[in-house]
Amino acid sequence: MSADEPADSRVNPVVRAVLRLFAAPRVRMLEDYPKVRRLQRFLAGTPRRYRFLDRAILADDGSREIPVRVFQPREREHGDVLLFFHGGGWVTGDIESYTPACAALADLTGRVVLAVDYRLAPEHPFPAGLDDCVRVAGVLLREPGLVGLDDASAITLIGDSAGGNLAAAVSLRLRARGCPMPGRQVLLYPATWFDHDPGTSPFESVRLYGTGLRLTALEVEDYMALYQPDPQARGNPLIAPLLAADLSGQPATLVVSAELDLLRDEGEAYAHALRASGNQVRVERITGALHGFLTLPRFVRPVTLACRVIDDFLGAASETSGR
């Protein structure tokens, strides 16, 4: 359904009890993030089942490489490319644990997916991970021929959760620097705000879904503390894009939210703010979906529906741009 349509956002107590069965085990992310990283890799299984090609792009100073994994779809139906930033609260998730999700995204959209293995907090706090994403995006947008493209408009930035936050922040930084811009961006249940305390957050979804489901408000606050340890610095628009003073000149944007997600309202609010600044924006809410659904098996409804929405958005955007 469209997020612009009214909906009863409260979860029936019986439904909530069932959803809790699928919730992630409660952890204190400040201490347990290494365990979560290992568990994610284990659950992802061996990547040898998927067709991918590992590449790297040199960091700005040439001192290290930023890994990029290239996923070819079973049938390539479209010539454009998706540049993907994974979720995980800027702290967990990596190129291995997201291999199944990226392979599914490539197959279900018929597009090549390039996944960036950016540096993670707390070992590398803000802006390290963002810098990696900006570097990879900047290189490919300046030299689209590296991925077999004629122009930068055929590159779409896409990310889920913290990756959606990074995609939005990359677009903001690219515009501020006067760099070539991607043709589109797809933000899947993105984090766009700095405060997830149910007592002070301006968003009702934090109070409705901030406890007992797949992602909790406490976990988001832990992620934020690891990403940017200084609470006073979390108002940076590159951490909380909703605070950006100028949202003009952004790529055509699709925001996909999950109905039963504490980040739902802030993601949709960012979409509305982009639209109010003159950008082309589409908002879609996946009913009955929890946060993080992109990492579920490819055949489940939220994944297949979201990929259809993405495919439709990218196709419509291509027609509008004349490509």
From TrEMBL:
Highest taxon in the source lineage: Bacteria
Alpha/beta hydrolase fold-3 domain location: 82-294
InterPro entries in UniProt: AB_hydrolase_3, AB_hydrolase_fold, GDXG_lipolytic_enzyme
Transmembrane regions listed in the UniProt entry: none
A Pfam family this chain is assigned to: Abhydrolase_3
Record keywords: Hydrolase
Gene3D superfamilies: alpha/beta hydrolase
Record PANTHER family: AB HYDROLASE SUPERFAMILY PROTEIN C4A8.06C, ALPHA_BETA HYDROLASE FOLD-3 DOMAIN-CONTAINING PROTEIN-RELATED
Name of the molecule in the record: Acetyl esterase/lipase
Organism: Brooklawnia cerclae
